[in-house]
Amino acid sequence: MLNGSDKVHIVGIGGSGMSALATILLQRKVQVSGSDLKDSVVLDRLRAEGATVYVGHEGEHVGDATVVAYSSAIAKSNPEILFAKDHRLRVLSRAELLKAVVSGQKAVLVGGTHGKTTTTSMVSLMLLNAEVDPSYLVGGELNEVGASGRSGGGEFFVVEADESDGTFLTLDPYLSVLTNVEVDHLEHFGSLERLREDFKTFVRASTLPAVVCVDDEGARLISEGVPQLSYGTRDDSDLRIRNLALAPHLTTFELFLKGKRLGQIDLPVPGVHNALNATAAIGVSIQLGVDFERAAQSLSRYLGVARRFQLKRLSDDIRYVDDYAHLPTEIRATLQSARQVSPKRVVAVFQPHRYSRTKLLGFELGQALGGADIAIVTEIYGAGEDPIPGVSAESVFEGAQSVLGSSVIFERKRSELAKTVKKILQPGDLCLSLGAGDISLLESEIALVEENP
Question: Is residue 450 among the annotated active site residues?
Answer without folding.
Answer: no
